[in-house]
Amino acid sequence: MSIDLQDKIILIVGGASGIGQAAARICAERHAKVLIADRETGTGAEFFPVDVTDEASVKALFAAIEARYGRLDVLLHTAGILRGAYVPLDEFKLETFRSVLEVNTVGSFLCAKYAAPLLRKSGKGVIVLVSSGAATGGSSSFAYGSSKGGVNSLAITLANALAPDNIRVNVLSPGNINTPMKRGVIQADLELHANEGSLEQAVASAGLGDPDGVGRILAWLASDEADYVRGLIATR
Predict the structure, then answer these.
(1) Does 114 participate in catalysis according to the annotation?
(2) Residue 225 and residue 227: Cα distance in Å, rounded?
(3) Is 95 exposed, middle or buried (0-12, 13-18, 19+ CB in 10 A)?
(4) If I label 59, which of 174, 188, 201, 209 is the partner at 20 to 30 A Cα–Cα?
(5) β-sheet bridge partners, residue 13
(6) What pLDDT score was predicted for residue 6?
(7) pLDDT at 203
(8) Are 17 and 72 in contact (CB under 8 A)?
Protein backbone atom coordinates (compact mmCIF):
# COMPACT_ATOMS: atom_id res chain seq x y z
CA MET A 1 0.00 0.00 0.00
CA SER A 2 1.47 3.36 -1.06
CA ILE A 3 1.94 6.30 1.29
CA ASP A 4 -1.02 8.70 1.29
CA LEU A 5 -0.10 12.40 1.22
CA GLN A 6 -3.68 13.63 1.48
CA ASP A 7 -3.92 17.28 2.62
CA LYS A 8 -0.15 17.84 2.34
CA ILE A 9 0.89 21.01 0.52
CA ILE A 10 4.22 20.13 -1.09
CA LEU A 11 6.45 22.59 -2.93
CA ILE A 12 8.99 21.04 -5.28
CA VAL A 13 11.67 23.50 -6.32
CA GLY A 14 13.17 22.27 -9.57
CA GLY A 15 10.09 20.17 -10.27
CA ALA A 16 9.93 20.76 -14.02
CA SER A 17 12.43 18.05 -14.95
CA GLY A 18 14.49 15.10 -13.72
CA ILE A 19 14.11 13.86 -10.17
CA GLY A 20 11.90 16.80 -9.20
CA GLN A 21 9.46 16.07 -12.01
CA ALA A 22 9.26 12.41 -10.98
CA ALA A 23 8.64 13.40 -7.36
CA ALA A 24 5.94 15.85 -8.39
CA ARG A 25 4.02 13.22 -10.31
CA ILE A 26 4.33 10.61 -7.56
CA CYS A 27 3.30 13.04 -4.79
CA ALA A 28 0.28 14.07 -6.85
CA GLU A 29 -0.67 10.43 -7.39
CA ARG A 30 -0.59 10.07 -3.59
CA HIS A 31 -3.09 12.90 -3.21
CA ALA A 32 -0.80 15.77 -2.20
CA LYS A 33 -1.40 19.33 -3.33
CA VAL A 34 1.75 19.74 -5.44
CA LEU A 35 3.26 23.12 -6.26
CA ILE A 36 6.16 23.35 -8.70
CA ALA A 37 8.68 26.20 -8.69
CA ASP A 38 11.24 26.35 -11.46
CA ARG A 39 12.72 28.52 -14.18
CA GLU A 40 11.10 26.24 -16.74
CA THR A 41 7.37 25.90 -17.21
CA GLY A 42 5.90 23.11 -15.14
CA THR A 43 3.13 20.74 -16.16
CA GLY A 44 0.58 18.75 -14.21
CA ALA A 45 0.71 20.94 -11.10
CA GLU A 46 0.37 24.53 -10.01
CA PHE A 47 3.44 26.39 -11.26
CA PHE A 48 5.40 29.31 -9.80
CA PRO A 49 8.35 30.86 -11.63
CA VAL A 50 11.49 31.33 -9.53
CA ASP A 51 15.19 32.03 -9.85
CA VAL A 52 16.74 30.41 -6.78
CA THR A 53 19.87 32.56 -7.06
CA ASP A 54 17.83 35.75 -6.66
CA GLU A 55 16.69 36.43 -3.09
CA ALA A 56 13.87 38.74 -4.22
CA SER A 57 12.53 36.03 -6.53
CA VAL A 58 12.62 33.40 -3.78
CA LYS A 59 10.99 35.76 -1.28
CA ALA A 60 8.22 36.51 -3.80
CA LEU A 61 7.65 32.78 -4.36
CA PHE A 62 6.95 32.09 -0.71
CA ALA A 63 4.90 35.26 -0.31
CA ALA A 64 2.67 34.03 -3.16
CA ILE A 65 2.29 30.61 -1.52
CA GLU A 66 1.44 32.19 1.82
CA ALA A 67 -1.15 34.47 0.22
CA ARG A 68 -2.81 31.53 -1.53
CA TYR A 69 -2.54 28.74 1.05
CA GLY A 70 -1.45 30.27 4.33
CA ARG A 71 0.98 27.45 5.06
CA LEU A 72 3.39 24.92 3.57
CA ASP A 73 3.87 21.34 4.76
CA VAL A 74 6.86 20.18 2.75
CA LEU A 75 9.73 21.74 0.79
CA LEU A 76 11.50 19.37 -1.60
CA HIS A 77 14.49 21.22 -3.05
CA THR A 78 15.63 19.35 -6.16
CA ALA A 79 16.92 22.27 -8.25
CA GLY A 80 20.52 21.92 -9.35
CA ILE A 81 22.97 22.44 -12.20
CA LEU A 82 26.25 20.84 -13.22
CA ARG A 83 28.78 22.85 -15.22
CA GLY A 84 32.44 22.27 -15.96
CA ALA A 85 32.36 18.50 -16.34
CA TYR A 86 35.86 17.17 -17.02
CA VAL A 87 37.40 20.65 -17.20
CA PRO A 88 40.96 20.47 -15.76
CA LEU A 89 41.61 22.40 -12.56
CA ASP A 90 44.03 24.82 -14.22
CA GLU A 91 41.34 25.72 -16.78
CA PHE A 92 38.35 25.81 -14.45
CA LYS A 93 36.84 29.29 -14.44
CA LEU A 94 35.92 31.01 -11.19
CA GLU A 95 32.73 32.23 -12.89
CA THR A 96 31.68 28.62 -13.51
CA PHE A 97 32.49 27.62 -9.94
CA ARG A 98 30.46 30.47 -8.49
CA SER A 99 27.49 29.94 -10.79
CA VAL A 100 27.09 26.31 -9.69
CA LEU A 101 27.36 27.17 -6.00
CA GLU A 102 24.80 29.95 -6.47
CA VAL A 103 22.16 27.53 -7.75
CA ASN A 104 22.94 24.41 -5.76
CA THR A 105 24.06 25.71 -2.38
CA VAL A 106 22.87 29.31 -2.11
CA GLY A 107 19.56 28.35 -3.75
CA SER A 108 19.02 25.64 -1.15
CA PHE A 109 19.75 28.13 1.63
CA LEU A 110 17.40 30.81 0.28
CA CYS A 111 14.51 28.40 -0.23
CA ALA A 112 14.94 26.97 3.28
CA LYS A 113 15.15 30.47 4.74
CA TYR A 114 11.86 31.65 3.26
CA ALA A 115 10.08 28.31 3.59
CA ALA A 116 10.70 28.07 7.34
CA PRO A 117 8.02 30.57 8.46
CA LEU A 118 5.36 28.75 6.41
CA LEU A 119 6.55 25.34 7.62
CA ARG A 120 6.21 26.53 11.23
CA LYS A 121 2.55 27.26 10.52
CA SER A 122 2.09 23.68 9.38
CA GLY A 123 3.02 22.47 12.86
CA LYS A 124 4.94 19.53 11.41
CA GLY A 125 7.04 20.78 8.53
CA VAL A 126 9.54 18.92 6.36
CA ILE A 127 12.51 20.08 4.31
CA VAL A 128 14.36 17.68 2.04
CA LEU A 129 17.40 19.00 0.18
CA VAL A 130 18.72 16.94 -2.71
CA SER A 131 22.48 16.50 -2.69
CA SER A 132 24.46 13.91 -4.65
CA GLY A 133 26.82 11.01 -4.23
CA ALA A 134 29.32 13.38 -5.84
CA ALA A 135 29.53 15.24 -2.51
CA THR A 136 31.44 12.38 -0.92
CA GLY A 137 32.49 10.18 -3.83
CA GLY A 138 33.94 12.75 -6.21
CA SER A 139 32.58 14.47 -9.28
CA SER A 140 33.39 15.25 -12.89
CA SER A 141 33.12 18.93 -11.89
CA PHE A 142 35.01 20.72 -9.11
CA ALA A 143 32.08 23.08 -8.73
CA TYR A 144 29.36 20.44 -8.59
CA GLY A 145 31.07 18.23 -6.01
CA SER A 146 31.84 21.23 -3.82
CA SER A 147 28.33 22.63 -4.08
CA LYS A 148 26.72 19.35 -3.05
CA GLY A 149 29.11 19.01 -0.11
CA GLY A 150 27.79 22.40 0.95
CA VAL A 151 24.22 21.14 0.65
CA ASN A 152 25.02 18.24 2.97
CA SER A 153 26.46 20.54 5.63
CA LEU A 154 23.64 23.05 5.19
CA ALA A 155 21.05 20.33 5.82
CA ILE A 156 22.77 19.21 9.03
CA THR A 157 22.89 22.81 10.28
CA LEU A 158 19.25 23.40 9.35
CA ALA A 159 18.16 20.19 11.06
CA ASN A 160 19.66 21.31 14.36
CA ALA A 161 18.35 24.86 14.07
CA LEU A 162 14.79 23.96 13.05
CA ALA A 163 14.17 20.94 15.27
CA PRO A 164 12.69 23.13 18.06
CA ASP A 165 10.13 24.36 15.50
CA ASN A 166 9.10 20.76 14.75
CA ILE A 167 10.57 21.01 11.25
CA ARG A 168 12.34 17.85 10.12
CA VAL A 169 15.25 18.30 7.70
CA ASN A 170 16.76 15.52 5.61
CA VAL A 171 19.24 15.46 2.75
CA LEU A 172 18.91 12.91 -0.04
CA SER A 173 22.02 11.77 -1.89
CA PRO A 174 21.18 10.01 -5.18
CA GLY A 175 23.68 8.06 -7.21
CA ASN A 176 23.73 7.91 -11.01
CA ILE A 177 20.20 8.62 -12.19
CA ASN A 178 18.93 8.96 -15.77
CA THR A 179 18.25 12.70 -15.79
CA PRO A 180 19.01 15.42 -18.36
CA MET A 181 21.88 16.55 -16.12
CA LYS A 182 23.51 13.11 -16.01
CA ARG A 183 23.02 12.63 -19.73
CA GLY A 184 24.85 15.90 -20.24
CA VAL A 185 27.82 14.59 -18.24
CA ILE A 186 27.89 11.41 -20.33
CA GLN A 187 27.80 13.50 -23.50
CA ALA A 188 30.73 15.57 -22.23
CA ASP A 189 32.68 12.36 -21.55
CA LEU A 190 31.97 11.08 -25.07
CA GLU A 191 33.23 14.33 -26.57
CA LEU A 192 36.32 14.43 -24.34
CA HIS A 193 37.41 10.96 -25.37
CA ALA A 194 36.17 11.25 -28.97
CA ASN A 195 34.14 8.09 -28.58
CA GLU A 196 32.26 6.94 -31.64
CA GLY A 197 29.37 5.38 -29.75
CA SER A 198 26.03 7.14 -29.46
CA LEU A 199 24.73 8.88 -26.37
CA GLU A 200 21.94 6.33 -26.05
CA GLN A 201 24.43 3.48 -26.11
CA ALA A 202 26.54 5.16 -23.43
CA VAL A 203 23.48 5.83 -21.27
CA ALA A 204 22.38 2.20 -21.58
CA SER A 205 25.82 0.89 -20.61
CA ALA A 206 26.06 3.26 -17.61
CA GLY A 207 23.27 1.40 -15.80
CA LEU A 208 21.58 4.58 -14.64
CA GLY A 209 18.75 4.47 -12.13
CA ASP A 210 15.18 5.54 -12.87
CA PRO A 211 14.20 9.00 -11.54
CA ASP A 212 10.95 7.44 -10.29
CA GLY A 213 12.94 5.40 -7.78
CA VAL A 214 14.28 8.57 -6.18
CA GLY A 215 10.89 10.25 -6.57
CA ARG A 216 9.28 7.53 -4.48
CA ILE A 217 11.84 8.06 -1.72
CA LEU A 218 11.17 11.81 -1.76
CA ALA A 219 7.43 11.17 -1.50
CA TRP A 220 8.05 8.89 1.48
CA LEU A 221 10.29 11.44 3.18
CA ALA A 222 7.51 14.01 2.72
CA SER A 223 5.11 11.76 4.60
CA ASP A 224 4.50 11.31 8.32
CA GLU A 225 5.77 7.73 7.92
CA ALA A 226 9.31 9.15 7.76
CA ASP A 227 8.93 11.18 10.95
CA TYR A 228 11.73 9.30 12.74
CA VAL A 229 14.24 9.56 9.88
CA ARG A 230 17.22 11.82 10.48
CA GLY A 231 20.30 12.93 8.56
CA LEU A 232 21.50 11.86 5.12
CA ILE A 233 19.83 9.15 3.04
CA ALA A 234 21.76 7.64 0.13
CA THR A 235 20.13 5.97 -2.88
CA ARG A 236 21.45 4.02 -5.86
Answers:
(1) no
(2) 6
(3) exposed
(4) 174
(5) 37, 77
(6) 95
(7) 64
(8) no
Residues 216, 221, 223, CA angle at the centre, nearest 5°?
A: 100
- HSE (CB half, 13 Å, CA atoms) of 83? 16
Superfamily of 9-179+211-234 according to CATH: NAD(P)-binding Rossmann-like Domain (3.40.50.720)
pLDDT in the model for residue 60: 98
By C-alpha distance, which of 50, 46, 113, 117 is closest to 79? 50
Q: Which amino acid is at 232?
A: L
pLDDT given for residue 34 in this prediction: 97
d(CA 229, CA 204): 33
Q: What is the pTM of this model?
A: 0.92
Q: Which CB contacts under 8 angstroms, 24+ apart, belong to 145-154?
A: 146/97, 146/100, 146/101, 147/80, 147/100, 147/101, 147/103, 147/104, 147/105, 148/80, 148/104, 148/173, 150/101, 150/104, 150/105, 151/104, 151/105, 151/108, 152/232, 154/105, 154/108, 154/109, 154/112, 154/129
Q: Which of 69, 86, 114, 144 is catalytic?
A: 144
131 by DSSP, 3-state: which? coil
Residues of the chain with pLDDT under 70: 1-2, 42-44, 182, 186, 189, 194-197, 202-206
Which pLDDT tens digit goes with each residue over 198-212? 777 766 666 777 999
Confidence (pLDDT) at 43 = 62
